[in-house]
Design brief:
The chain is an alpha+beta fold. It folds into six domains: 140 residues, no CATH class; 184 residues, 3-Layer(aba) Sandwich (Rossmann fold), CATH 3.40.50.300; 70 residues; 79 residues, Arc Repressor Mutant, subunit A, CATH 1.10.10; 151 residues, 2-Layer Sandwich (TATA-Binding Protein); 165 residues, Nucleotide cyclase, GGDEF domain (Alpha-Beta Plaits), CATH 3.30.70.1230. The protein is 27% helix and 33% strand. It has 23 helices and 57 strands. The strands form twelve sheets. Strands 18, 19, 20, 21, 29, 30, 31, 32, 33, 34 and 35 form an eleven-stranded mixed sheet that branches. Strands 42, 43, 44, 45, 46, 47 and 48 form a seven-stranded antiparallel sheet that branches. Strands 52-53-51-54-55-57-56 form a seven-stranded mixed sheet, with helices on both faces. Strand 30 and strand 31 form a beta hairpin. About 1% of the residues have low confidence.
């Protein structure tokens, strides 16, 4: 509802007040802004509140009276952020117009305007002295300004795509940065702390972060990430606890002036309150919110128990008014709340729950005795076992303890037994995170190399920990020899001691699971080695805890799969009182599913609303597909997609799912998982669709190991095959380079450049988890620009995935006259002497410096990474869509498995350019408006939504005329004036027998929309014939245009496609 009159405003405030608990009251509602309110800021003396807004203004409010003292106007676009200096006499603001403006708060006058940021400004912050101002936004840099002169002091490259929040520490020497997206160098979003004087990163953690706030008195930092708040200790920099309670993205956080209370505002329309010391959730109030990309603010008064929040009147509808910049009815006003801190802190509910999880992993090569060891560590009787397929997770111990402050903390130790077969290695790289203790096992009785695999697993563990950031708990590593009852260790004590020292193992255990040797000692050592005080704690409500326990009990019962709504109904049936008391119980239930998914304990599938309760089966089926690809008769490292999705390959009997319908769902999810993690390429070849695993090729490259045109060698340490495989997949998806099965070999791949010419990778794999990539250009058609982008991407990828991010790079210099390379030893000697030319014996001169023409080329790593992500996500989207069509609810809607359906793919034309022009703030709202229109039309024409991804929408209809009517109506009115649409329509059988015919229908429709030129609707020849046969009256006057000879990737030959639209 839009509140207009004074009486309506008073009634709205009274409605809010009536719903509040006794410890909080609404003291002011500040009105006047015509669009959303951004990040709020209090003056340091507490007299003023500044509210930047999407309406282009900043308002200064008197804190005590709530009067608007000044309206600051001068920005030419939305204003996202504001900050006061230490004197409270100067205010800085920034936003859409790329400028920073300084204002005199005593009279509202503009003091200075500073240009310099090339992108939107999302956050600004004064240092504690007020002499320096930091600004950042949509770009990779944080800029520091002299607030007295307006001069830029320095620029700090933080390697970000979008910075959302900045905060100086109390000393002014460090700055915290919260960012998201993919930066130019391929780095994903993160939380990072920077030393400003040295321009060095003090600590970091990967993730999508929106807001940061320093504790005013303790060396702690709060950060908003997804639907949780994280509390970080600063010295050393580590995660202390995770606060659960929100059900959607947390957009803004703030500590009270004394640090006793932390407030967080989320897109779930709540403000949550937490104890600043323990993280206990104290209470929550309602505050209707939008989901704009520019987060609305929440801010505590520096001295008084007052909280300001961007908000809305009750029942305010979130609809947009059509503005391209995401104008919204919500978050236009500011509420000032007065809190009774003592009463709030006494609210500490008995329902608060605190728990800590310690993850212990058992790794080693196949057949070394891990399975028997895991049994006896879990206090079970020893039994002879075969090699473990996949992974198993055991609960070693669970206990409750009382911690300082009186809270009860649940401590749980989980043992992960990871299979060691070669086919599982690339799969298990996905689970080596958040590890407290690693047990690296080798077979004491091996007569060849008892320590085989130790180096690989130790380096895999180290790399996994490194990729989590500088914040990770330092894992303990135990070296364990197994099966000592079958004979003594075949290596000497000196070698064992050398391995312990070289790889930093903390202890060595000489065990026998069968005889019980050193099992108790190992179990006790595990318990003693877990530093519970150092592991991050999770704080949540008892409701969250109860939901999680329910889900884990269902998992322990052995159920494989269940729709989320079914699980919720079971929980609600057993908790009828909660259903009546908790309005958003379903949202909280879904959030808890997500939190357990983050711990790899369950998995929410992207189709059918299913929850996979035994996600370890994804590993088993994924590894079985990898092994099948490795055994491909021609050595082509691939498996037909239809074979993969119908389960016609070997899976160990003990892991094969016997329920065919459930297995079908699991198979689709497994293929999607492999694609989503860049472990496989989907190749649409002339003879069908394949999943291609670059690491599993068995045919040799004929010119290995010295390919023609060697240019660069990159030597690295880390999981070699995983690094190589993901590099090949992402290069193939990068948009600048492509490859296929015919151009892949064992440890080699050749790519075709979009700009012309061939580029290649050859991998030398050494012992001890080390490798060397040779980059080569086998023909002379690769331009300098092609070579630059190929080398730059490969090097950036290798650095990110290498241990300690350390690589050795050697460039090969080749004589253009005779084609012979200059020996590396000569290159080093000449370069050390400062010589830039090598005189070749043939008479040619070889430059020993980087070709000067390469300097002109801008980096494309970030763009290539984003393209690779989009390609991967689209392939995963198609796999998920195929999975959706196998669900019972879809089959019930379709009317069975032997019907004919029309598939429609739609996509926003030039969405990337549109997004860059209007930025995420608007694009999110544009997309939502367009999708709302699409869903309305699907209901009108009795279709069914299948999937959405990015700007693409897939739907199904029982007849092709209904599909066409839907596409025509959507193209006429897309839901937003900025959206222009393309659509592809195909019709096919939904028969599922030896191969997935309907999967082909989905893929064909996806290729049709990919062929569309501009904002048009295209149909397959089959669909056009059906339209003519049906002869609907409203289709008689349509305009048709035939397109002949259209190739569609993955389908042999060429096709006739038809563009269709209204006449005139």
């Amino acid at each position: 509802m839009k509140t207009e009159t004074k009486g309506e405003r008073l009634r709205a405030d009274r409605r809010i007040q009536r719903g509040l608990p006794e410890w909080i009251k609404l003291v002011h509602t500040l009105r006047g802004h015509k669009n959303y309110v951004g990040r709020l800021a209090w003056s340091h003396d507490g007299r003023l509140l500044a509210s930047p807004s999407g309406d282009g203004s900043i308002r200064l409010w008197h804190a005590q009276s709530g009067d608007c003292l000044h309206i600051l106007q001068g920005h030419t676009g939305s204003v996202h952020c504001a900050a006061f200096d230490a004197t409270s006499n100067q205010l800085a603001s920034g936003g859409l117009d790329l400028s920073i403006k300084l204002w005199d708060t005593t009279n509202g006058a503009l003091v200075r305007s500073m240009q310099g940021d090339p992108e939107w400004i999302n956050s600004i912050a004064f240092d504690p002295k007020g002499t320096r101002l930091a600004s950042a936004g949509f770009g990779s840099s944080v800029r520091l300004w002299d607030s007295r002169t307006g001069e830029m002091i320095t620029s700090l490259d933080v390697g970000a795509e979008r910075v959302w929040s900045l905060a100086f520490d109390p000393s002014g020497r460090m700055i915290a940065v919260a960012d998201s997206g993919i930066a130019a160098d391929g780095k994903k979003g993160s939380l990072s702390i920077w030393n400003l004087a040295e321009k060095t990163k003090y600590g970091w953690n990967e993730g999508e972060y929106l807001s940061v706030a320093y504790h005013p008195r303790e060396r702690m930092l709060a950060a908003a990430r997804s639907a949780v708040v994280e509390i970080w200790q600063l010295a050393p920099f580590r995660l202390l606890r995770t606060l659960e309670g929100h059900t959607k993205q947390v957009s803004s956080i703030s500590f009270s002036g004394d640090g006793r209370i932390l407030a967080s505002k989320g897109n779930d329309s709540t403000i949550q309150f937490w104890a600043g010391d323990t993280g206990s959730r104290l209470a929550a109030i309602s505050e209707p919110s939008t989901e704009l990309s520019i987060p609305p603010g929440v801010a505590f008064h520096p001295n008084l128990p007052l909280l300001a929040s961007a908000g809305s009147d009750p029942d305010t509808h979130p609809d947009l008014n059509g503005s391209v910049f995401g104008r919204t009815n919500r978050d236009r006003l500011i509420h000032i709340w007065q809190l009774d801190f003592e009463a709030l802190l006494n609210e500490r509910p008995d329902s608060a729950a605190h728990y800590v999880n310690a993850k212990v992993v058992l790794v080693g090569d196949t057949g070394v005795g891990k399975s028997g060891l895991s049994l006896v560590l879990n206090n079970q009787r020893f039994l002879p076992t075969d090699s473990t397929p996949g992974r198993r997770v055991w609960t070693l111990k669970s206990q409750q303890v009382t911690v300082p402050g009186g809270d009860t903390q649940t401590r749980e130790t989980l043992l992960w037994d990871l299979a060691g077969q070669p086919g599982y290695r690339i799969i298990h790289q996905l689970h080596l995170h958040e590890i407290a203790i690693a047990l690296v096992v080798f077979d004491a009785r091996s007569e060849t190399d008892p320590l085989a695999g130790v180096r690989h697993w130790e380096r895999a563990l180290r790399l996994a920990q490194q990729r989590q950031g500088s914040t990770t708990h330092q894992m303990k590593k135990f070296l364990v020899s197994a099966r000592n009852d079958r004979g003594g260790v075949s290596i000497g004590d000196d070698r064992i001691e050398s391995i312990l020292n070289e790889f930093g193992f903390d202890k060595y255990f000489k065990t026998s699971a069968k005889e019980g040797w050193q099992i108790n000692e190992l179990r006790d050592a595990i318990e003693r080695a877990i530093d519970w005080d150092f592991l991050p704690e999770v704080s949540s409500s008892k409701l969250f805890s109860d939901i999680k326990l329910f889900l884990l009990d269902v998992k322990k019962s052995g159920r494989l799969l269940a729709p989320g709504i079914q699980l919720y109904d079971e929980f609600a049936h057993n908790n009828e009182t909660l259903v009546a008391q908790v309005a958003d119980l379903r949202d909280q239930f879904n959030t808890c599913i997500g939190r357990l998914e983050n711990r790899d304990l369950i998995r929410r599938l992207t189709f059918g609303g299913y929850v996979l309760l035994q996600p370890e089966l994804l590993d088993a089926y994924g590894s079985a597909m990898v092994n099948t690809a490795k055994e491909e008769p021609d050595g082509l490292g691939s498996i037909e997609e239809d074979i993969a999705r119908t389960g016609r390959f070997f899976v160990p009997k003990e892991q094969r799912v016997t329920d065919t319908s459930q297995e079908q769902i699991l198979l689709h999810a497994t293929v999607e998982e492999l694609v989503q993690h860049d472990l496989a390429l989907r190749e649409n070849a002339d003879d069908g669709r394949y999943l291609v695993f670059p690491s599993q090729f068995n045919r040799d490259y004929e010119v290995a190991p010295e390919p023609k045109g060697k240019a660069l060698a990159i030597t690295f340490a880390g999981p070699v095959q995983s690094l190589y495989s993901t590099l090949v997949v992402r290069l193939g998806h990068s948009g600048l380079f492509s490859t296929r099965r015919a151009e892949m070999w064992r440890n080699a791949a050749v790519f075709t450049s979009k700009l012309g010419g061939k580029c290649g990778l050859f991998l030398h794999e050494f012992a001890e988890a080390r490798g060397r990539l040779i980059l080569f250009f086998p023909d002379d058609r690769s331009t300098a620009e092609t070579r630059f982008h190929f080398e730059e991407f490969a090097l950036a990828h290798t650095i990110r995935r290498s241990i300690d991010r350390a690589v050795e790079v050697v460039r090969f210099f080749v004589c253009s006259r005779c084609g012979e390379p200059v020996p590396d030893a000569y290159v080093k000697i000449l370069q050390n002497k400062g010589a830039l030319i090598f005189q070749c014996p043939c008479g040619g001169e070889v430059p020993l410096s980087e070709p000067i023409e390469r300097i002109q080329f801008a980096s494309q790593v970030g763009s290539m990474e984003r393209t690779a992500d989009r390609h991967r996500e689209f392939d995963a989207f198609v796999m998920s869509a195929n999975g959706e069509t196998r669900t019972k609810s879809f089959l019930d809607w379709a009317g069975g498995e032997r019907v004919t359906l029309a598939i429609v793919f739609t996509d926003i034309v030039d969405s990337t350019a549109l997004g860059e022009a209007i930025r995420d703030e608007a694009m999110d709202q544009v997309r939502r408006s367009h999708f709302a229109r699409s869903r309305d039309l699907i209901r009108k024409f009795k279709g069914r939504e299948i999937k959405t991804i990015g700007d693409s929408f897939m739907s199904a209809f029982r007849s092709v005329d209904a599909a066409l009517d839907y596409a025509l109506s959507l193209n006429e009115r897309t839901g937003h004036p900025q959206v222009h649409l393309r659509a592809g329509i195909h019709i096919g059988s939904m028969q599922v027998e030896e191969n997935d015919v309907f999967g082909g229908t989905v893929n064909f429709a996806a290729r049709v929309v990919g062929a569309v030129e501009g904002a048009e609707i295209w149909m397959s020849e089959r669909a056009r014939e059906d339209i003519e046969r049906l002869g609907a009256r409203n289709h008689k006057n349509l305009r048709w245009k035939r397109h002949d000879g259209i190739p569609l990737k993955g389908f042999p030959g060429t096709f006739i496609l038809w563009a269709v639209g209204p006449r005139g």
